Amino acid sequence: MKPNVRRARNRFDPTATAPFPLSRSKIDFFLECPRCFYLDRREGIERPPSMPFTLNNAVDTLLKKEFDVHRARNTAHPLMRTYGIDAVPFQHPSIEQWRTALRRGISYHHIPTNFLVFGAIDDVWVDPKGELMIVDYKATAKQEKVTVAAHLYEGYKHQAEVYQWLFRRNGFPVSNTAYFVYCNGETDRAAFDGKLEFDIRIVPYVGSDAWVEGTLQDIRRCLETPAAPGPVAACAYCSYRDAATEALR
After folding, report:
1. Which of 27, 84, 173, 202 is spaced 20 to 30 Å from 127 by Cα?
2. CB neighbours of 37 closer than 8 A, spacing ≥ 6?
């Protein structure tokens, strides 16, 4: 079967009046490489798909079930008490929608750019003052322990900040401090024995969503340009594409 290398749907049209859907992940995509982003959103040419993170998804699902028990009871998870976080999982009628990507999670129509910005969260906690805390679950297996915000990828930080921005635009009071429930698979065990154990830590991150508005404007200008931006030196896809084109001349 011939792969669909150029889709017709979900492409930006500068003349369209309907809001253009822009996910949180696509904002990070633009920050990573405007050229690849343009080819995807304007021309419908996607990057080759990566392998699905099915193990990470399983950890996410189990953590959500675990924290949902405390959400129903309005109690703090033991991890929250261990790290001195005075909060409980947030109860709200839209919590399931916010956590479901297929339902566009939490969204906001940004009038200046006519983007419908959306993203699916992992969790939200609330403190006694009613201030919300954005929470993201991460699963990996690294030798280095992730203990402070400096160890987090920049993309993780952007993710939390976009969610903070979305919740604020929906009228919620939101703390600048987000939390990452970081699950690191232990590889120093004597044997697998059909069980993978994790070192689980909560990593706080004090974010700022001040960059989001300007970035949305940059994305709009990028998509309205008739030609794709130039290649990004650090982008492996740009390097491959250009090297392959040169070799085939």
Report:
1. 27
2. 26, 29, 30, 219, 222
User: What is the Cα–Cα distance from 33 to 230, expressed in whole angstroms?
Assistant: 10
Q: How confident is the model at residue 139 (pLDDT cuts 50, 70, 90)?
A: confident
Displacement of CA 11 from its chain's centroid (Å): 21
The pTM assigned to this predicted structure is 0.91
Tokens (6 digits) for 220:
């709009």
The per-residue DSSP string of 42-55 comes to TT--PPPPPPP-HH
70: left (phi over 0), alpha (psi -120 to 50) or beta: alpha
CB 60 within 8 A of CB 67: no
